[in-house]
Known about the structure:
Structural class: alpha/beta
Order of helices and strands: EEHHEHEHEHEHEEEHEHEHHHEEH
CATH topology: Peroxisomal Thiolase, Chain A, domain 1
Strand order of the largest sheet: 1-7-6-4-5
Bound molecules: oxa(dethia)-CoA
Oligomer: single chain
Shape: globular
Low-confidence stretches: none
Distance between the termini: 61 Å
CATH class: Alpha Beta
Amino acid sequence: MQYAEITGWGKCVPPAVLSNDDLATFMDTSDEWIFSRTGIKERRICHCNFSDMAIVAARRALAAADLAPADVDLILLGSLTNDSLCPNTASIIQDAIGAVNAASIDINSACTGFLYGLHIGTSLIRTGAHKNVLVIGGEFISHYMNWAKRDVAVLFGDACGAVVIEGSDQEVGLLASKIGCEADAKYAIQITNLGSAYSRLSDDFRYVDWNFDGQEVFKRAVKSMSLACANVLEQAGLTVDDIDLVVPHQANKRILDSLAKRVGVPQEKVFVNVHKYGNTSAGTIPVALAEAVDEGRVKPGDYILTASFGAGLTWGAGLIRWGDRVKPLQKSDAELPPNDKTALEIIAPHIERYLEHAKTTK
Ligand code: UT7
């Protein structure tokens, strides 16, 4: 039986920090409201292209696995904020890292993009179709934000993470997974004015917008993730007491608390970094996983439960068994291009445009 071990992990968080107090300088909100409703204190703002973050995360993951780029045979990129639709952004990453023997696929399932990618990549290794897969998840969501909409703009941030999965005879890696989609609620999270259904009908694409039913998403997120967790535990023949660490999608600390309660895991076993980065969509799980390993929260042979939900409304869960190694084999010196701007300076032109637009559409 072939398994797919996670042998490399890496993250890239851009340096510019946007605090809750920064947000309160241009919208009617407060640190108190944001922190008490979401657990978020600050988030990062990307100063370069999305692919720059993805390339750094990918190089760090490859170094941790000590895998040559030419040995990667598949790149799966989960993101909805790609550099471009054509060429697909996985191919931009492939070229930059020199993964000359890889196939490259963009996956757009929003926040679940990384988990969907891990599910697909693992399945392809287990069938023998691929050997070494690079799974990346991340987002440059600040670029698509309507900064005049306080109920959405405070929630998100930019970041990217990646893992390398390699064929193994040991029973490790993603041992069970379940993914799905509640498409009847697809418009509970909607980014409008982006895509051919809009551009076919209108000449005005300067402003994307968000329709967002936060409470509906909250309820469905807790329910779908907890059911998916129960499913993967059953598939793996484990109980919740066997779980050493939960690394869930980081959207809202209250969602994580409700999930832990419903699944029956003590909060100390739940890895949380939403206070530092907000919701980075497809980036949350690979970034959290990389931090959990680097911070010593993952031990050899640990059982890790992961779960995610996002626009679609897509959802999923996975049961990972970690391998023997918790230290990177090599360190990459990959870095983002330098940045000399504050987060507020980076997004200032967008804020101005969206605030002006909001006045004209009131
Ligand atoms: O990865 C998938 C992405 N989706 C999500 O993560 C969404 C999940 N949902 C949530 O996280 C929560 O529903 C929210 C954080 C979005 C909202 O929390 P809530 O406790 O459900 O708040 P609410 O929607 O009931 O809003 C309460 C009040 C409203 O005012 P009124 O109508 O009671 O006067 C809002 O207008 O809070 C107001 N409000 C704000 N006030 C200050 C909404 N956004 C803000 C804000 N600052 N940023």
